[in-house]
From TrEMBL:
Name listed for the protein in its UniProt record: DNA topoisomerase
Sequence ranges assigned to domain Toprim in this UniProt record: 4-137
InterPro entries: Topo_IA, Topo_IA_2, Topo_IA_AS, Topo_IA_cen, Topo_IA_cen_sub1, Topo_IA_cen_sub2, Topo_IA_cen_sub3, Topo_IA_core_domain
SUPFAM superfamilies found in the cross-reference section: Prokaryotic type I DNA topoisomerase
NCBIfam families according to UniProt: PRK07726.1, PRK08173.1, topB
Higher taxonomy: Bacteria, Pseudomonadati, Verrucomicrobiota, Opitutia, Puniceicoccales
PROSITE patterns the UniProt entry points to: TOPO_IA_1, TOPO_IA_2, TOPRIM
CDD domains on file: TOP1Ac (cd00186), TOPRIM_TopoIA_TopoIII (cd03362)
Family: Belongs to the type IA topoisomerase family.
């Protein structure tokens, strides 16, 4: 019986490619086989760690007393949906004629885990070798087969893969169970947490708090128009001896006191001509480094709005299906130092629009292996940067073309010289006050030539000329005072969130500093996209345009975790440190036992904090039950006095912080307790995700306690029971029937096909009470007057808008046009005279 080698790829398409490249290996049912090889594949993960209830049936019930759950040995099970595939591979591994097994799964930590779990659950005892590919071209595959790696060489990577999987299990299982029990099953769903996903959510939520708590500050800028012989130019006032300090909003051109701005305005307006000096210097801009996966995802999101997961899938297809680029799941932005010949060969093979640019790099001998920004073994780990292969371009889909074009142009541009700019800085001094003007023009395209940038751009700054005198003089034509406000930080996009994850919560734009911080980032390039997608799937975040926005569910979880001081799940920096330790395991610098011991201790600490009494603080709201202040914790406001119910003490009065997926404010709670009802309020959300309005009422339960209930009558549920004739008619609905003003809503007598009012408008919308005059205006003119002071449910910001009645009967917002920047003064008579003089001078 001939001895055979079993090759297990991660996906069927890769198995097909291997069978084709290794010679004539015909299909034999679900796998390929000849006298030398048996080639099959997984379909991603086939095996998983067993769940707690499979370890012990008592774990079916989630309790804090059972935590932490730390298995002595982590056991495996086949994933149900792919069980048949696992059984097929198990049979192949057990075949007597198979003497060696080759792991041909993706060359990375996750590929290592996929194969390791399959082989372990199949009880594989045969020698294992590793196929390590950075490219799927035929030559690269043959080279990889000629250099198979030994199992011992792969042990650190396998240790890291197992450790990552088990650490995620320990933190995820114990954290989710503990948080769900202590935080409560909100709406019947678990409070899912994770080692990487929850610190990532913490980054997004903290930015939302920064935006919500931001207090804008007024500032003023002075802008002046100056006239010289060759034309006009504009300059902005600069504070003398300005130095950047701790105030991130401070700028050289911002004045924080209106009086200061007005004094300077008066001085400059009446200050005569400006004395002008300028300096010119040439600056250089180096080409950006080659892409790793994260930088590719960031730029694709910024340029095209592609979600990170989409970019990963496209890059994977370019590598695996089209063979046109190298392995995408890389964290490296450099190439091996011996890769010079491959680079030159790849450049020589590029076709179409790329040919002249690539040929220029070759003709000028710009490919230098001594350039450590490009060729650097110390910055190449398992894989190098993403670059094109020598495979000729084929027909690609539009999105694939865009990603391929990004990769190819970056690959060519990195070898080009710097782009050079001529920068002019002009200072115009009037009455001892300085105004700054800058001009910038591309002088030498360098690497920008690859992107179609040329030097035909002209400097738009009017040049000084001998006619302006020595020293140069300029007429002050116009001076204006602009009023503006500081703005909160922007919400994260996927591009900026990926960067923040890479920097463990810090947005780092400098390439060299970002490279140094990679080792302590959250997750890996291969997992960051799926982390973002999972948080969106679990409804902790949502995409609004290109922005990433946390939900009410996220806010509740974050406040809960921070109240219990569970830094394990809320600190991006701490999680980043553990990611670094995981990489140390992968590099053989730290043992697997050491890493898992630390994770186990961290899990113990997390559960101890969850078992501690919930932190409470005294609020400023008084309870009618004992005339004392309500206590506030992560879940609710509740009275200090209690009543006995079924053998246990419960607060006499309690108001949950989140009701119907809507966060309550202290002001609303105080009013609810005082009036015993409040509303109707907007912003509630049903389990199905449908928004609704409702009244909140404080009711006395049968056990004597005071609790809050939703009253759905004002949301239309009980409109059919209302006798509209007892309420005044205020307007006519679009269907011609009368509209009545009821205590909770404006309701028409007419019905739609479903038997509901043809027009219905809650009296309260986003914190504003709508008056009968508003409804009259809406129905008669299809548009109200401007209503000020709506409060967004999502951002909690105030905004102004018109309500409009749409053709289909729906209600929408129309926003007023954005006001131009305020100008505190107009041109003075002297300014107009100066302008005429400058115009006359120019025309001579």
């Amino acid at each position: 019986m001939p001895e055979k080698t079993l090759i297990i790829a991660e996906k069927p398409s890769v198995a097909t490619d291997l069978a084709r490249v290794l010679g004539k290996v015909p299909k034999n049912g679900d796998f390929f086989e000849n006298d030398e090889y048996v080639i099959s594949s997984a379909v991603g993960h086939l095996v998983e760690l067993i769940m707690p209830e499979e370890i012990d049936k008592t774990y079916k019930r989630w309790t804090l007393t059972d935590l932490p759950i730390v298995p002595k040995k982590f056991k495996l099970r086949p994933i149900d949906r792919t069980k048949a595939k696992f059984q097929e591979l198990k049979k192949l591994i057990k075949r007597e004629d198979v003497t060696t097994v080759v792991n041909a799964c993706d060359a990375g930590r996750e590929g290592e885990l996929i194969f390791t779990y399959i082989n372990e659950l199949a009880n594989g005892k045969k020698p294992v070798k590793r196929l390590w590919m950075s490219s799927m071209t035929p030559d690269a595959i043959r080279t990889a087969f000629a250099n198979l790696r030994e199992a011992d060489e792969m042990q650190p990577l396998q240790d890291a893969a197992r450790s990552r999987s088990e650490a995620d299990w320990l933190i995820g299982i114990n954290g989710t169970r503990g948080a769900t029990v202590q935080f409560g099953r909100r709406g019947g769903t678990a409070a899912t947490v994770g080692r990487v996903q929850t610190p990532t959510l913490s980054i997004v939520f903290q930015r939302e708090l920064d935006i919500r708590n931001f207090v804008p500050r007024d500032y003023w800028r002075l802008v002046a128009d100056f006239g010289i012989h060759s034309g006009e130019y504009q300059g902005y006032y600069q504070k003398p001896d300005f130095k950047k300090g701790d105030d991130e909003h401070d700028r050289a051109d911002r004045l924080w006191e209106k009086e200061d701005a007005e004094k300077i305005f008066e001085a400059v307006t009446n200050g005569g001509d400006a004395e002008v000096t300028e300096t010119k210097k040439r600056t250089k801009q180096i080409a950006p480094r080659l892409y790793d996966l994260t930088s590719l995802q960031r730029e694709a999101n910024s340029r095209y709005g592609f979600p990170a997961g989409m970019t990963l899938n496209i890059a994977q297809a370019l590598y695996e299906k089209h063979k046109m680029t190298t392995y995408p799941r890389t964290s490296s932005r450099a190439l091996p130092e011996d890769y010079g010949p491959t680079v030159r060969n790849t450049l020589s093979q590029l076709e179409g629009d790329y040919t002249p640019h690539a040929q220029k790099a070759l003709d000028n001998d710009w490919v230098h292996t001594g350039n450590k920004r490009i060729f650097n073994n110390a910055q190449v780990t398992d894989h190098f940067a993403i670059i094109p292969t020598e495979v000729k371009p084929k027909k690609l889909q539009e999105k694939e073309e865009k990603i391929y074009d990004m990769i190819v142009r970056r690959f060519i541009a990195v070898f080009y010289p710097h782009a050079e700019f001529d920068v002019t800085t002009r200072m115009s001094v009037v009455a001892e006050h300085t105004f700054k003007t800058e001009g910038k023009v591309l002088a030498v395209p360098g690497w920008l030539d690859v992107y179609g940038k040329a030097t035909h751009d002209k400097d738009t700054l009017a040049p000084l000329s001998p006619e302006d005198g020595e020293p140069a003089k300029a007429k002050v034509i116009n001076v204006e005072m602009e009023e503006d406000q500081t703005r909160p930080p922007p919400r994260y996009t996927e591009a900026t969130l990926l960067a923040a994850m890479e920097g463990a919560g810090k947005l780092v734009e400098d390439e060299e500093l970002a490279e140094a911080m990679k080792e302590t980032g959250l997750g890996t390039p291969a997992t960051r996209a799926s982390t973002i997608d999972h948080l969106i799937k679990e409804k902790y975040m949502l995409r609004e345009g290109r922005e990433i926005v946390p939900t009410t569910k996220a806010e509740g979880l974050m406040q809960f975790l921070k109240a219990f001081k569970i830094e394990t799940l809320t600190s991006p920096a701490l999680t980043g440190e553990w990611e670094h330790k995981l990489r140390d395991v992968e590099a053989g610098k730290m043992s697997r036992d050491q890493f898992m011991q630390g994770i186990t201790e961290m899990t113990d600490d997390m559960i101890k904090k969850l078992n501690s009494p919930p932190p409470k603080q005294k609020s400023s709201i008084k309870s009618p039950t004992d005339d004392d202040f309500l206590m506030e914790d992560h879940r609710s406001w509740h009275s200090q006095d209690t009543i006995e119910v079924r053998g246990r003490s419960i607060p006499s009065l309690a108001v949950n912080k989140v009701i119907g997926n809507r966060k309550m404010t202290p002001e609303e709670v105080a009013l609810l307790i005082e009036k015993r009802e409040i509303g109707p309020l907007d912003g509630f959300m049903s389990r199905s995700g449908k928004a609704f309005s409702a009244m909140l009422k404080m009711v006395q339960k049968d056990n004597g306690s005071l609790r809050v209930e939703l009253d759905f009558g004002e949301n239309g549920e009980g409109d059919g029971d209302i006798d509209l004739t007892q309420y005044p008619v205020i307007a006519q609905a679009p269907d011609g029937t009368n509209v009545h003003e009821t205590p909770n809503a404006y309701i028409s007598e007419g019905k739609d096909k479903k038997g509901k009012p043809s027009f219905r408008m809650s009296r309260n919308m986003l914190g504003k009470t709508l008056s009968p005059d508003d409804i009259k205006k809406l129905l008669s003119d299809k548009k109200t007057d401007l209503i000020k002071g709506f409060r967004s449910n999502r951002t909690k910001r105030l905004f102004d808008a018109f309500l409009v009645l749409k053709d289909g009967g729906g209600i929408g917002f129309e926003f007023p046009p954005r006001a131009p920047k305020k100008k505190a003064a107009k041109k003075s008579a002297k300014n107009k005279t100066a302008k005429k003089a400058a115009e006359a001078e120019t025309s001579e």
